[in-house]
Each structure stands twice: as structure tokens, then as C-alpha cells.
Amino acid sequence: MTIRLTVAGRDLTATPADGAAARDFLALLPLTLTLDDFHGIEKVADLPSRLSTAGEPDGTTGDAGDLMYYAPWGNLAIFYRDFGHAPGLVRLGAFDDADAAAVLGALDGPTEVTISVVD
Length: 119
What we know:
CATH architecture: Beta Barrel
Number of helices: 2
Pfam family, one: Cyclophil_like2
Organism: Isoptericola haloaureus
Domain Cyclophilin-like: 5-116
Shape: globular
Number of strands: 10
Protein name: Cyclophilin-like fold protein
CATH topology: Cyclophilin
CATH class: Mainly Beta
Distance between the termini: 5 Å
InterPro entries: Cyclophilin-like (IPR041183), Cyclophilin-like_dom_sf (IPR029000)
């Protein structure tokens, strides 16, 4: 299974993680969300519902190219720069495309993204 993000005329693919949060995220797809920049490190968007964190670690490190869930706020976080360890951060997957982080980092202002599953 592959996750496809369509943003700014580009299709980016990601491989989902194997955990409760990732399974809940996949069950929400397809989604169209608005990405906003957060501190020059990540793009964030509100999700329509919270994801399960059962069995997930209490936190992790966000690396450029990671799809994450920030449990305290219930939002999607897509990292385009490396970030240190954060409590409440849960991995949903990672981009397959080497240039995905650069594409996301170059987005200017709020940007619509469509996220779907490709079998």
C-alpha cells in the first residue's frame, strides 16, 4: 500500500508506518486538507478526527520526509526539515520521493493537499 499526496501539481508517494495511528490515518483517506507552515520546519493540517496512539511510543524524532501525527493537538505534521525528539509525535509514514521535503519546503502560504491511498 502507498500513500499519495497531491500538492502544487505534484504527486508525492509515501510508505505508511505499521501502527495504530497509521491504520487510523489510512482509514480517513481520501482527504483534502490545507497545509500551513509551522516554524519553518513542517507543514501542518488539522485532521477530521483524532488517531489512536495505542501501542505507539510516547514520542519520536521527526526527520525531513516524515509524515507524523502530533497527538497533543490531533494534527498531521509533514516534516521538510529535521526536528529533534518530541513527546506526542507519532510516525505515520515516510516519503518515497527523495525531493519530497524540498517540494514541501518550497510551498508558500496555505496550500491545499489531497491525500489518498494507492494500492
